[in-house]
From TrEMBL:
Stored SUPFAM superfamilies: Acetyl-CoA synthetase-like
Protein name: Cyclohexanecarboxylate-CoA ligase
Keyword annotations from UniProtKB, A to Z: Ligase
Record keyword Manganese present: no
Pfam families in the record: AMP-binding, AMP-binding_C
Entry's family note: Belongs to the ATP-dependent AMP-binding enzyme family.
GO biological process entries: fatty acid metabolic process
Keyword Ligase: yes
GO molecular function annotations of the record: medium-chain fatty acid-CoA ligase activity
Superkingdom of source: Bacteria
Domain AMP-dependent synthetase/ligase: 18-359
Domain called AMP-binding enzyme C-terminal: residue spans: 409-484
InterPro entries the UniProt entry points to: AMP-bd_C (IPR025110), AMP-bd_C_sf (IPR045851), AMP-binding_CS (IPR020845), AMP-dep_synth/lig_dom (IPR000873), ANL_N_sf (IPR042099)
Length: 505
């Protein structure tokens, strides 16, 4: 582990971490975007001026400020300015609309709300007014400005709740997740140290800065002193020019991002899509073992996958120097400060990177057990070598005629089928069986041959792979595209259940 990075990781607050990094390498870049370049020193100085402008608007330590902004240099400046003041930040994913945004504003009791104006055809300012938001101000390319000499001292401790992040709310209202500066630094430190990056690397942030992965990744930049390319809008192949221009060495985000890069590579056999790329890394969604082998074989880069959630931004991470078997089949190992306990098959967590609970005290009481471990709802086990293996979600256990069936097991097998691009296995209500197994498949590119994606062909394939008969799908649906969230592109299984449920079947 890099000695300087380890020392920086002891910083009490995010602002202290930025100050220490800026003092070490003020002229090195931290963010690259199109033809723009911001150094660590400029990030510190610019954030102080923005903090002074916010202070002049009435923002004080403890003031709740919500912001719904795209991944831009200005967004990072505003966020660090709020950290300088010790305000409570409530980042909101920029793709969210009235229901989620209104909920976040009400529940957090935000006193100010930063928006991008009209962005990607949506008028965020008008939406904010419609929702009755307080203290609305636009912060897309112009930020508040003031004299830093008027600022009070920065916060001295990092144990207070200064961040409210929002779960996706795909099956119910979102939950407000409470984080401290120290919990975010701890999560980012896990990511940074596991990936073994160096000051010569160039990272990339193709996901919303407002996602919990935003501070996770930014902490890594501050600890190791290397830059990341910011993508306000991410799509391939359009974004490839930015990766090549800035000579990105580390890319990723989640399994969906790996799939997109792999698809581009398959369109260019014999030509590396990003010549300088050496590592794909990410988390946020299950990774089929075949995905690891395909990336290494076809792209010629390493793949290190991890495990995290809004409540715990980084739990485990794959080590790029680990053996292929561990990188393909596990989520990596936890850092020294993360305790993992398996209770009745469920993964439970305790450590500094774990959130302090939820805005709703009742949700906090339900989420933590009597020993202070967070109940994740994920199922898994720890190997003899200390690697975590996830086997699914509690809600992804399909109970068919009283037998428990893991959706993840079937998905991993189907990912090996050459005609399958992606797949989600769900349980659907069934009057006779309780639940029936339904595989929803997104076809591979190029398109499969006739007869490859029929229920009979798929079940025959699974039988040949050794899947028990009682686990075979009874329903197969082939779709043009699986529904995904806008952040890390997770498959939204609840939408598939709504679409394909038929209790009369």
């Amino acid at each position: 582990m890099d000695t300087a990075a380890h020392e920086l990781g002891t910083s009490r607050t995010l602002w202290e971490l930025l100050e220490r990094r800026a003092a070490l390498t003020p002229d090195r870049p931290v963010f690259l975007q199109d033809d723009r370049r911001l150094t660590f020193g400029e990030l510190r100085a610019g954030a102080e001026r923005v903090a002074a402008g916010l202070y002049g608007m009435g923002v004080r330590p403890g003031t709740v400020v919500a912001w719904q902004l795209p991944t831009r240099i200005e967004t990072a400046l505003l966020s660090f300015a709020l950290a300088r003041l010790g305000a409570v930040q409530s980042p909101v994913i920029p793709f969210y609309r009235d229901r989620e945004v209104g909920f976040a504003l009400r529940e957090s009791r935000a006193e100010f709300f930063a928006v991008p104006g009209t962005w990607r055809g949506h008028d965020h300012t008008e939406m904010a007014r419609r929702l009755g938001a307080k203290g609305i101000f636009e912060a897309y390319d112009a930020l508040p400005d003031g004299d830093p000499a008027r600022l009070p001292a920065p916060p001295a401790e990092g144990a207070s709740v200064r961040w409210i992040y929002w779960t996706s709310g795909t099956t119910s209202a979102p939950k407000g997740v409470l984080h401290t500066d120290r919990s975010l630094i701890a999560g980012g430190s896990c990511l940074a140290h596991a990936l073994r990056l160096t000051p010569d690397d160039v990272g990339s942030m193709a996901f919303p800065y407002a996602h919990i992965a935003g501070p996770d990744y930014t902490v890594m930049l501050l600890l190791y002193g290397f830059p990341a390319v910011l993508f306000e809008q991410f799509a391939l192949p359009e974004a490839l020019a930015g990766y090549r221009r800035h000579r990105v060495t580390v890319a990723g985000g989640s399994t969906a991002f790996y799939s997109m890069f792999l698809a581009e590579q398959r369109r260019r056999p014999g030509e590396k899509v990003v010549p300088t790329l050496r590592l794909l890394a990410g988390g946020g969604a299950p990774k089929p073992p075949e995905m690891y082998h395909a990336v290494v074989r076809e792209m010629g880069v390493q793949l290190a996958h991890g495990y995290g959630m809004t409540e715990v931004p980084m739990i485990t991470m794959g080590d790029p120097d680990d053996i292929a078997e561990n990188l393909a089949t596990t989520e990596g190992r936890p850092p020294a400060g993360m305790e993992i306990r398996i209770v009745d098959g469920e993964v439970r967590l305790r450590g500094e990177a774990v959130c302090r609970g939820y805005l709703d005290p009742a949700q906090t009481a339900e989420a933590f057990d009597e020993d202070g471990f967070l109940r994740t709802g994920d199922l898994g086990y720890v190997t003899g070598g200390g690697h975590l293996v996830l086997t699914g979600r509690r809600k992804d256990v399909i109970i068919r005629k009283g037998e428990n069936i893991s959706a993840r097991e079937i998905e991993d097998l189907l990912h090996r089928h050459p005609a399958v691009g992606d797949v989600a296995v769900i349980g659907l209500p069934d009057a006779e069986r309780g639940e029936r197994v339904c595989a929803v498949v997104e076809a591979a590119v190029p398109p499969p041959r006739d007869g490859e994606l029929t229920l009979e062909a798929v079940t025959a394939y699974l039988r040949a792979e050794g899947l028990s008969v009682h686990k075979l799908p009874e329903q197969l649906e082939v779709v043009d595209a699986l529904p995904r969230g806008e952040t890390l592109r997770k498959i939204l299984k609840y939408k598939l259940r709504e679409r394909f449920s038929d209790t009369d079947r």
